[in-house]
Design goal:
6 helices, single chain, 133 residues, alpha+beta
Length: 133
């Protein structure tokens, strides 16, 4: 695995509390699978790897990587539950972004959009909005 990819994957593993070996392995428990999706999404967004390149790095088929990245993006936009843990996770994903905007591609494919998090009166809002062309 390339050093820059390993750095990103290590950060995700540490933030998710998952062993690096487990994240890169074949186990499919919920926590490990979600951490792996997060890692694939992070590597793709930070380093701009193509899906085939991502598949090589994670030793998976590129279609598995497409599914993982799209699944993670859907989870960011529409968490399965509105728990405090999901809200905190969303805040962590958006930390360090410019003007509280996390840029990501829509799950629909070619369409581009932004994942937006704004805080007003202590409440977080989130959603997708289309980018200006």
């Amino acid at each position: 695995m390339r050093f820059d990819v390993l750095q990103v994957v290590s950060e995700v593993a540490k933030s998710r509390g998952v062993a690096l070996d487990s994240l890169l392995g074949r186990k499919r428990t919920k926590s490990i699978a979600m951490a792996r999706k997060h890692a694939m999404w992070s590597v793709r967004k930070r380093l701009g790897l193509s899906y085939p390149e991502l598949g090589i790095e994670f030793e998976r088929d590129h279609t598995t990587c497409i599914s993982a990245v799209r699944s993670f993006e859907l989870e960011l936009v529409n968490p399965r539950s509105n728990s405090a843990g999901n809200r905190a996770r969303l805040r962590r994903f958006c930390e360090g972004s410019v003007n509280n905007i996390c840029v990501m591609s829509c799950a629909g494919g070619d369409q581009r959009g932004e994942m937006v998090r704004e805080e007003s009166d202590g409440k977080s809002t989130r959603g997708m909005r289309e980018c200006a062309a």
